[in-house]
Write a structure and sequence with these properties.
This protein has one domain. It has seven helices and no strands. It is mostly helical and 125 residues long. It holds the Pfam family LLG1.
Length: 125
């Protein structure tokens, strides 16, 4: 059973993604770079399968950006472990999105997040 996400994605500023990842072409480099900039500070929570952070975050990304299903899962691939997140200092993570209740420093990958998003959107079809 999933627990509630400790990060409040509802009131986040999604402008970093919506201003750089625009259709109809959705350029992969811009979309993936923007996604990483937004999501990497929360990689630890997003990769935790015991909570619903990944599902919640992608719901809001798609709500605000009106992106096609599976956009990030299909475009954003780096290594076998997924997307690499740079290590962030606590202050820079807080600066990226001050609306969150929790900021994390993480150098972990977002492979679970992108994989989970892909699975969620595959189930829709």
């Amino acid at each position: 059973m999933e627990t509630a996400c400790p990060v409040n994605f509802e009131f986040m500023n999604y402008t970093i993604i919506t201003s750089q990842c625009k259709g109809p072409k959705f350029p992969p480099k811009q979309c993936c770079d923007a996604f990483k900039e937004f999501a990497c500070p929360y990689a630890e929570d997003l990769n935790d399968l015991s909570n619903d952070c990944s599902t919640t975050m992608f719901s809001y990304i798609n709500l605000y950006g009106k992106y096609p299903p599976g956009l990030y899962a299909s475009q954003c691939k780096e290594g076998k472990e997924g997307l690499e997140c740079p290590a962030l200092s606590p202050s820079s993570a807080a600066d990226i999105n001050a609306a969150t209740a929790t900021t994390t420093t993480a150098s972990s990958c977002l492979w679970l997040t992108v994989s989970a998003a892909f699975l969620v959107f595959v189930k829709l079809f």
